[in-house]
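When time allows, look over one protein, given below as sequence and tokens. The question is which stretches look regular and which look disordered:
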Amino acid sequence: MNGALRTISLVCMGFLVVLVIGCTNYQSAASEVIANVQKDVPFTIIVPAYFPSDVRPVPSQISGPSTNDITNSVGVGITYYGKSDNKMIIVDEENINIDMLPAGPYDTFNINEVAVLSQETSMASATKIYYGLLYSWNRNGVNFQVRIFGYDQNEGRKIIESMIK
């Protein structure tokens, strides 16, 4: 559902009065927020064009932009959540002009002549450890890291393919 319409109905001396409080187009609002963040980063923010069916394509959280004083790079993180508590997609994008390799064993595949590294990853909360996949690639001097939790490799690859066109 792209928009939500909230109404309040009041019955006043036998008359029904309907007040329209607001109409919010969530996809449009998300695009506007990302466009505002885009103004402050020196690279194009890429969001997935494909999401699994249970993920609303509206960011739950945007962190940054922030600057790493050591590498003088700018980073942005965008998080999307699924309906289940163990399903989420975290998209981190950073502008670091250094070679980027994951710390453990990884697989490599190509999408539109872009080499993508893939490896297993985990993330811990106060009560649970989440296991997922980390995808990393560099395109035009911008490093991308996308962490996907709660989905299999096929779904992960669809998300990544939608980001690399």
Remarks:
- Confidence is low (pLDDT under 50) at residues 1-23.
- DSSP finds two helices and nine strands in the chain.
